[in-house]
Write a structure and sequence with these properties.
mainly alpha; YfhD-like protein
Amino acid sequence: MGRDEHKKGSNNAASLPQTPKNQKIKPKDMQAEIAEEFAELRKNKKKKEFRWP
């Protein structure tokens, strides 16, 4: 009888996925990133083009 018999699930089940280094942004740049996204949303909201297919 090995130790594995009483183990349920895997060790990775409780861990969170890791973010690749090239996709991480610095905490101080986070506010600028959010501001850019809101500006883009406001710009798209002003255009409001509705086209029916």
